[in-house]
Amino acid sequence: MRFSALTAAPVPWKNGGGVTRELAVHKANGRMVWRLSLADITRDGAFSAFPGLARIHCIVEGAGHVLSNAETRLEAGLLEPLAFDGGLALDCRLRSGACKAFNVIFDPEFVLAEARVLRDGELPEAAGSQVFFVVSGTLELNEEGCFGPGEGHATEGAASGAVSGGGAVIHLRFQPV
């Protein structure tokens, strides 16, 4: 399934602290298994909590931010995927101006997820459900064609291809529980 942040409609957050673009959703038996979005974080404020779900959050533009509460402090830096409990009530403090973040929200009763950033070169061998999101450069998937910044692809099973052009591509793997 191909998706693009370039055509996804922006939706304001309830707290007015930014907007998000829903990129893709996977459901099973009417329940969300995972959801991908791209968020524009424009000011400090409360960070949305998703009780019962897990999150992976990766800054794709800007200096990032700090998520914290009385017990927790999480540093969100550029192209550094950050996994955490989606139910945490956290405050967001921008480091140096607005930023953009690629978000994965998933139900740990269905899947476990892991993320890494791929740079120029051949794609690693991986099985299972996978997602690729291009931050910079180009991703060529042999079966699906070329993808540029802001575009991505979700697939079941192995994928072959390469990242080029000084690229950075977020690679997600979902494993059933």
Task: Tell me what the structure shows.
By secondary structure, the chain is mainly β. It folds into two domains: about 5-105, Sandwich (Jelly Rolls), CATH 2.60.120.10; about 110-175, Jelly Rolls, CATH 2.60.120.10. The chain contains no helices and 17 strands. It has strands at about 1-5, 10, 20-30, 30-40, 45, 55-60, 65-70, 75, 80-85, 90-95, 100-105, 110-120, 120, 130-140, 145, 150-155, 160-175. Strands 1, 12, 13, 14, 15, 16 and 17 form a seven-stranded antiparallel β-sheet that branches. Strands 2-3-4-11-6-9 form a six-stranded antiparallel β-sheet, with no helix packed on it. It is globular, with a radius of gyration of 16 Å. It starts with a strand and ends with a strand. The mean pLDDT is about 95.
Overall 3D geometry?
A: globular
Taken in chain order, the helices and strands follow as: EEEEEEEEEEEEEEEEE
> What would CATH call the class of the largest domain?
Mainly Beta
**Hey, roughly how much beta strand do the residues contain?**
over 45%
Distance between the termini: 22 Å
- Uncertain residue ranges: none
